[in-house]
Amino acid sequence: MEETLLELAVRLGAALTGRGWMLGCAESCTGGLLSSVLTDTSGSSVWFAGAVVSYTNDIKRDVLGVPQEILDTLGAVSRETVLAMARGARGVLKADVGVAISGIAGPSGGTPQKPVGTVWIAWQSPDAVSAQHFQFTGDRQAVRQQAVREAMLGVLALAERVSAEN
Predict the structure, then answer these.
(1) What is the pLDDT of residue 160?
(2) Among 16, 39, 79, 114, which residue carries the largest CB count within 10 Å?
(3) How far is 67 from 64, CA to CA, in rounded Å?
């Protein structure tokens, strides 16, 4: 049986608490859903610093520090954008770990190069940074939920990997 989002958030909270890490999020296509799931977890203030819902490019640029050149040349849904968003979330929210999500949840907005369901997620800790492209299926809510799940799994893997190395 697949873990629910709330069960995954509880497990993530325990891993972050075990590391003594605070998490900061930068969300675009998920529109705050990740933050909502995280704060549905009792005691999340111990490990969740907050989030920036950067739905427009102006917020990505002005609040999170995504360079305008990246937005102009590669777009909001790109590896480089989510990497900059994750870095920006860590800085703005004074968090140890940052996760960023940007994508096209649909049903409109897709292009042949970036169809509906295209999502980029990035993770950044003091010692590691990574980004991954996903192609999710389903309606708008399904895409958003899948993105939230993968974002949490990535943070969890990062916390557990670092724990295993120490």
Answers:
(1) 85
(2) 16
(3) 9
Burial class (CB in 10 A: 0-12, 13-18, 19+), 159: buried
Identify the pLDDT of residue 85: 98
Pairing of strands 118-124, 97-103: antiparallel
Residues whose CB is less than 8 angstroms from the CB of residue 67 and which lie 6 or more positions away in sequence, other chains included: 61, 84
115: left (phi over 0), alpha (psi -120 to 50) or beta: beta
Helix, strand, or coil here: 100?
strand
CA atoms of 119 and 117, how far apart (whole Å) = 6
pTM tops 0.85, yes or no: yes
Query: Got the DSSP string for 37-57?
Result: HHHTSTTGGGTEEEEEE--SH
Contacts of residue 28, defined as CB under 8 A and 6 or more positions apart, other chains included, come to 53, 54, 55, 60, 76, 85, 100, 101, 102, 103
| pLDDT average per 10 residues of sequence, the chain (166 residues) | 88 96 98 98 97 98 98 98 98 98 96 96 95 98 98 94 56
Q: Which two tokens stand for residue 122?
A: 């990035």
